[in-house]
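COMPLEX REQUEST
Ligand: zinc ion
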Amino acid sequence: MPAINRLRADAFANQKGRCYYCGSPMWLTDPDAFRTRFGCTRGQLPALQATAEHLVAVCDGGKTTAANIVAAHQLCNRRRHLAKVPLAPDRYRARVTRLVARGKWFDKTLHAVARQARHIPG
Ligand SMILES: [Zn+2]
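STATUS: Structure written out below.
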């Protein structure tokens, strides 16, 4: 397994399958089980897939090491890097958390998935 895949799987396990930024569940290897469990659509699956996120980006000298890799939704990962100057990870996480709480991070159907997931242990 390439190092990045192993680091992503380790981060996913350490974070109990929750996104580093928004705290909602992600899927890593079994999209169908995720869909059944959380009632999302096939179309929503790519956004909710776990990705390996470099806290310090590779272009800024970030390394592919356990200390620099977290697991984050494809959606949350991508949005961080859409900014010309991405926020530092802790500031971005605070921003995402605020927007999730206000129902302004996910679209309506994804928000329903995330909200439902808070009531499901583990
Ligand atoms: Zn997320």
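REMARKS: The chain has a mean pLDDT of 91. The chain has one domain: 3-118.
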